[in-house]
Amino acid sequence: MNLFDHVRFLHESELFHDLKQLSCIVISLCDNNPNTEVLSLSQRYQCMVYYGNSLYHLGEFLRAENIYKKALLLKKALNKSKGKITATTPVQPSQDVTSEVDVKYKLYQCLSQMKQFREAMSILEGISSKQRTAKVNVALAKLYVMAGMDRSAITSYKEVIRECPFSLESIQGLLSLGVKGADVAALVMNGLPHGASCDWLSSWIKGQAYLATREYGNAIITFKQMDQKMCLKDNVYIVNSIAEARFYEGNDTAALTGFQRSHQLDPLFLKNMDLFSYLLAKEKKTMELQRLSEQLMKVTDKAPEPWISFGYYSLISRKVARTRTVYFAQKASIIDPFNVEAYLLKGTALFELKKSQDASLHFQEALRHAPHRYEAYHGLISCYLSLHRTREALACAGKAIKTIGSNPRTLTIYASVLTNEPNMSAKAKPYLEKAMKLDPSYLEPVYVMAEILLRDHQYDKGTEMLRKQLHTHNTCRLHQQLGDFLAQISEPLEALDEYNIALSLDPTNTRAREGKERVEKHNDVGLESTYDLEDMEGSDNDGDFDGSDVESNWSETEFS
């Protein structure tokens, strides 16, 4: 074995630390001995590529970029040379010399790792369209999407599908860019061998097309048919897609169940686990969220999902400072600068830290990347209201209805903003009534309506509405609000029962605790006063009692 053979053997053996040192030494030998042919020109080029590969695998991306650029310069010299590979070279060119396209792709990978996306795009665009492989076109398509160059991205994705009809990521990419499902299906089927039958693929494209066009009900039906009837039962990607559609539809309960099933099928599966973490945090399932975040971090720390999961855990955990949530969100953003969930998490954390102005910027950024995300509108509206920018909040809520559509969530959030305006409660009621009619199981409009009725002193109507809801739902807030109404209609014992139920469901509910203390205080004062009266009626000093103490006690009592 000659010196180059040893370099190549280290590369094939993936001994990258050894390869880094040896290839560097060999290159120096070549540079410092111009009159002696240590390696042929083609071997020097290939040794340079191996050197770059070793640096890339060891995470030294900037050095690898520099070496790959030097390798490309050598490749140009090699192409100009008459004898690119001499007759004495023991290995054939096709086996020994890395193509210029592959080196440029490696250079793109280095630049992407360093978040230099424009430079990475420029490198790949330097490859002629005829020489672009499928992986080059996929990479270009993703870079074009980041840059907002949708037409170029569509062209690149189509080239991938022509070469690889089963490139599911490219199919999803085309659908997300607005290409019709029928057109994508036709492109895929044309690339399949004649007579090939892929019923599952047609159904999968149909389901993904429904997701892309936000027809979530149809997407759920399609994926459930695949899960139940097409020998794909318990496929983690299909189950995950059903849960994803449920989430975007706004059915948190069903989405949570779906993600739990997906996680049980494959505990190491990462896709949409950030959404799963959000739902667990929303339901305050602290222990389950802690287990999930720790498990995801064992899978990898190079993906945003584990960091986002830890972020939501720190947001609801009393053991971790909320400032850590901002750190975890930032880590996710560094890994994926265009990750919407990272923006939402950071915005939520900053809002909880009373930094509404900073939080609003992150929610706005989330909306820029995902204009149909309800959570981004909700977060931004909350920021505006905390900053007393009601007019902007109302405009944002109106935009949510126009963009997402008129559904229970958007109607409710619009109504909730209206309730912050003086004398606008009457205008909010029709929106809430419509939301409750569209989805009787959705409780947010019930909560907002209850607040309006309480404010308007319509206690009987509010009590009746909440009792009706409690026949089918059992939530902390329903019991707490019913306790508020019962306290107002002089039903202290029933009010206390409701507050106790609310606190058993959520011990951290401040309003339930305060309501309970208020009722107990009023009730104790009343009992004590009655006891004093009875005691004094039987005493010998009846004539000395003028009732001033009792009047004082009652006047100091707050009935609210």
TrEMBL record:
<feature type="repeat" description="TPR">
    <location>
        <begin position="340"/>
        <end position="373"/>
    </location>
</feature>
<keyword id="KW-0802">TPR repeat</keyword>
<feature type="compositionally biased region" description="Polar residues">
    <location>
        <begin position="550"/>
        <end position="560"/>
    </location>
</feature>
<dbReference type="GO" id="GO:0016567">
    <property type="term" value="P:protein ubiquitination"/>
</dbReference>
<feature type="repeat" description="TPR">
    <location>
        <begin position="476"/>
        <end position="509"/>
    </location>
</feature>
<dbReference type="InterPro" id="IPR019734">
    <property type="entry name" value="TPR_rpt"/>
</dbReference>
<protein>
    <submittedName>
        <fullName>Anaphase-promoting complex subunit 7</fullName>
    </submittedName>
</protein>
<dbReference type="GO" id="GO:0051301">
    <property type="term" value="P:cell division"/>
</dbReference>
<dbReference type="GO" id="GO:0005680">
    <property type="term" value="C:anaphase-promoting complex"/>
</dbReference>
<dbReference type="GO" id="GO:0045842">
    <property type="term" value="P:positive regulation of mitotic metaphase/anaphase transition"/>
</dbReference>
<feature type="region of interest" description="Disordered">
    <location>
        <begin position="511"/>
        <end position="560"/>
    </location>
</feature>
<feature type="compositionally biased region" description="Acidic residues">
    <location>
        <begin position="531"/>
        <end position="549"/>
    </location>
</feature>
<feature type="compositionally biased region" description="Basic and acidic residues">
    <location>
        <begin position="511"/>
        <end position="525"/>
    </location>
</feature>
<dbReference type="InterPro" id="IPR011990">
    <property type="entry name" value="TPR-like_helical_dom_sf"/>
</dbReference>
